[in-house]
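Regression check, S-adenosylmethionine case 318:
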Amino acid sequence: MLQDFLIACQDPPLDRVSQQLVEQSISAFSVKNGNIPKWNKALTQIGHLEKSDVKYIDPYVTINIKQKNTYNLNKYLKQLIPWRKGPFQLGDIKIDSEWNGDIKWKRISPHIKSLENRTVLDVGSGNGYFTLRMALSKAKIAIGIDPFLLFNYQFQALRSLMKSPPNAFVLPLRLEQLPDTNVFDSVFSMGVLYHQKDHMNHLRKLKKMLKDDGELILETLIIEDDYEYELVPDGRYARMRNVSIVPSIKTLYSWLTSAGFSTIKLVSVNQTIPEEQRTTPWIGEDSASLIDFLDPNNNNLTIEGYPAPKRAVFICRN
Ligand SMILES: C[S@@+](CC[C@H](N)C(=O)[O-])C[C@H]1O[C@@H](n2cnc3c(N)ncnc32)[C@H](O)[C@@H]1O
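Current build output:
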């Protein structure tokens, strides 16, 4: 896949950075992780199967695998559990992932500039469900980055089943590792900001990756409050260990202004519902999801007593 990535980045401006990204990716893939032999085996087995066309068939990113191949494929895909992002359909296999990403994409995509012929960065791409949706929306290239190796393996497994893969890639990198290069027309940061120890650093770096006339699409947890306010969870938030800070909408406006954005548009605020985040067989047995993270007597509160997860989408320009 990294070879294909280099070929896809032969033209300016990505040719300036592609070699460095590949070297960083190779080094990220060579860390010690006890699961890698299992994931590599699944990837090799999947790589031997027949390749087919990929397209979006509501709500699935769909690969038209021939029926006879799917018994084994199902076994191999289960080696790559948990499938947090999706959904995907591979022949008769429906990977109904924990998150139904189609709901988010339908919420966001009507508000953004058309991705046709644009160079796109998807920060915190997970297994590339959205990166693929971006590429299938005719982006010139969509580059996802996510340091979590399993998600990179999931993406490679899916890509290896595609006859003519769209111009989408996922690299095992963190945003902070990318060189400051303002080469992207559209930069997405969805579900990532609240995981950052330094939220301003994240926002400033996103801005540095954008062309002068580029567009940032920021989707993140917020507190719906008219005041400047930020929640710093004492311990977990909705059972998540790594939520550093959740701002009010007003606070997020001032963060984005400080990061240098002059046009900031709030286009949606939504409380996360169990149709969008749910337990499914694809996240493993006895796994928990949203409904288990909320107060059983009041679904407007998390189990820790904080306001239940609400997500806002901001479209920002220089
Ligand atoms: C909650 S998931 C969101 C995935 C997807 N963007 C979505 O909206 O559903 C956050 C992802 O961001 C990744 N992530 C966290 N910090 C990151 C960083 N600094 N750079 C790139 N990815 C990051 C995590 O590994 C995780 O897969």
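Comparison notes: The radius of gyration is 19 Å. The domain at 2-317 is CATH 3.40.50.150 (Rossmann fold). No diff flagged against the previous build.
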